[in-house]
Structures are given as structure tokens and as C-alpha cells.
Here is the input.
Amino acid sequence: MSHHIVEVKDLEYSYPDRTPALRGVSFRIEHGEAVGLVGANGAGKSTLLLHLNGCLFPERGTVRIGDYPVTRQTLPQIRRSVGTVFQDPNDQLFMPTVEEDVAFGPINLQLPPEEVEQRVVRSLESTNSLHLRQRPPYRLSGGEKRSVAIAAVLAMSPDILVMDEPTSGLDPRARRRLMDLLAGFTHTKIIASHDLDMILSLCPRTIVLHQGTIAADGPTAAVLADQDLLLRSGLELPLRVQGCPICGRSCGGHPRP
Here is the structure.
């Protein structure tokens, strides 16, 4: 299952004004892993994710998805393997109806109509969104748009699911539904987020980015309990790890929020 593997070696990239964005970033993610990517604003998280699907290309170093290096020549294979859900679902939803948005990718794969229909139904069912199929995306709530954007990615049957701030802007109930949905996926998952409690619940492994470099890469429970590391990286302890303001005890052993 090498096509599920992500390998980044010595990745370097600078913004157009020559400000360094990523400096010597290296890691390997194996089949089926769920990995959190955390860091302060400007740490390089979104820039790194854009290298995984070929929206950006390294200035130095390499990015590989399975057997393929990420290059302009390999983009068709890369984008079949990597499904990316961007921070703003409005960047992905552009067709008149939800059904057409979810069908767009499979149609462009030149799949037969019956398979396109199967993928649309299966993907919308998996995100509890089948009842929205005839709705225009602009009439959906934030949580509904997020679910449909995920369905549109799943309709492409990706091997690797990449998500940028998936819980951003969601109310508590929509956040919980999304977390339950992601917990049920067997894909290799890479989730970039400021929601450290969500990362603690969904990702056994976490990579911390700080000023374009990897400050830590290890078991999530240990990484997100290291207060000094998090402070140096512009982050705070997840709420579940912080002491209770009333009794002073850690809530880390309590059920996830």
C-alpha cells in the first residue's frame, strides 16, 4: 500500500517576497496514520499542505506520495491519491447544486454515469448529507458546507485525506458531528488545526511546526502535554490538559469534549 504513504525530505519554500516559509522539513507518514499538524499562525501549516497536492512545488527537497514525486508531470496521479479539504469550503463548492459539486470530480475522471451516481450517493451518505443533494451550496450552513466539501473529496476515492482547519467556524454540535465522521474514516489523515483538543482526540501522532521548521514530531499525548514546547511554538495546552479552574486537577482523563 505504498500509495498511502507521504514522505517529505528537506523541504524548503519561500513566499514571493523571499520570506522563508518552510526550512528543511522532513517526515514520513505511513498507511492509515492519522497525524495532526499544529503551529501558530504563520508557522507554515497551510503552505506545507499545499505541497502535498501539487498546488505548490518545493524550491529544494522532495515530496513523495506513494511511488510518485510531486511534480507538474505527476499531478494527475497525485490528485487522485490526495484529497484536500481547504479551510474555507466556499473555495471548493462552485456548482449550482450539492449533487453537481460532488459529481464534478468523478465526471472529470470520465467514469460511467452509473458509477458517478454511486459515488455521489455513497459520499453524501457517509457525511450524512444525502438530504442536501438538490440544495444550492450557498444556502447551506457552515457545517453543511464542510460536510459537502468532504463528500466531494471522498467521491474521488482518495488514499490520503488532507484537511486544513476542519472545525474552523463550526458550532459545538457541528464540530462534534465532524469529529465523529473523521474518527470513522480509515484513510491516511493529515489534519492541520488550532483545535488542539480535536487533534488530541483524532490523531495519535502530532507534528509541531514553528517558523517553518519541525519543532516536534511524536505521540500526540506527549507532544500536547509539553507546555514549554507549546509556549515556544506559540501554542497553549489543550483545554483537556489544562488544570480545572475550580479544583486545579487535570481533565486529561475525562471523556473528550
Observations:
- DSSP finds nine helices and ten strands in the chain.
